[in-house]
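Before a colleague's protein record goes any further, I have to sign it off. My question to you is simply how this chain folds and whether the tokens agree. I do not need a full report, just your reasoning and any doubts. This is what I was given:
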Amino acid sequence: MCFSATASFGSAALLLVGGTLCIRHAIKNDKTYLLLAITPILFALQQVSEGVVWIGHNGNLTSLTTASSIFFLFFALLFWLAWIPIVAFSLETKRWKRIFFIILIMIGFIFGLYLWIPVLLETGPRHLIKTSVCGHSLCYIMSDDSLFSITAGHIIYSSLGFLFLLSSNRIFRKFWALVMLLGVIVYFTQRETWVSTWCFFAAISTLWIYFLLINDHKAKIKKQAS
């Protein structure tokens, strides 16, 4: 998490438990939701990486801080832009929307590479300059490309996120609407630490997936019985 190593590892442990429950439910009742069910586990990995960032930062271990920051930003800048539309695609039933999500997967992957590769190489536009603490949270300071500002990157990133809401699947839409709402709130309240803080709240919100799946299963059973 964005507050301490303990909080990061604690939230990761909670997500591992929640993700395991989601996966078990999906396998037992509806494998269509398996990719969505895996999502909390993936967020747990990201939270572990930020816990390592805290360890590196607090111990003045520059190499560890940089390496773990790059891994954390792999999820934040690249992985989620490709994974979330993949999940939406796996749940989509309408043909034109399936094609639409294939396009979003490609766009997300290409744009994500543009954002993350300079971070990995530590050079060029938007490369990682320094990981530091802003207030009580981590902030990942990156360079600003004169041709493509960080603000413009945030706008495109968020716009892609809102497009994922076009999914026809009600469970996915409810989950992702919460994630985007939290992203907007965090952006206007904690802009300096937006990446870290939004990722934390997005991670915690994946626990809601389990309850959405449970309620949907109960509704289906009730409908079949009536």
Observations:
- The mean pLDDT is 90.
- The CA atoms of residues 19 and 41 lie 5 Å apart.
